[in-house]
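TetR/AcrR family transcriptional regulator
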Amino acid sequence: MSQLSVASALRRDAQHNRAHILEVARQAFGNDSVDVSMDSIAKLAGVGAGTLYRHFPNKDALLAALLVLHYEGLDHRRVEIEAGESDAGRALELWVEALGDWMLAYEGLPEPLRAACGVESPLTPTCHAVIATTERILKAAQDEGLARRTMTGRDIFFGALAIAWASGATAAGEDTRNVLRDILKNGWMEPKTAPGGRP
């Protein structure tokens, strides 16, 4: 076998290992939470720790790879919202709902997402992209007088993150997410002005 053929076979083997690890991690995080250890994932995948860490140097790198498809789904939802909703305030509301779904892709995901906003990690670029999109959707609502000027996309992102965290907590009630989402909505909405200019 030529060196080129050997190299090609090794690349295929590495790609197979990476795909297998991702599938095992997806199932493990889905069944339990993102708290599953890297060593446990390696054992479940039937690979050595060295193989796992060659592909994914830490858990954030593994999560970032798993979230690629979830992020594509979130962006597809954004396109649907922007194409189908002419009311900027309603578009913002629907976007926050979509954010919550994305943030709850795996139990325990809100915490690594929060941390990635303060410390550089493989999840940071995705968080920044989502915050930038949120900022743009929020600004459209602000331009129409439907959202407070004091709010930022980062504020909305962290509000949605807090709701996702609370919704995933063991003690959360069935309606916790809806109640907290209403509170966030009331927080970003521009108060109606009564006659005479008083809120």
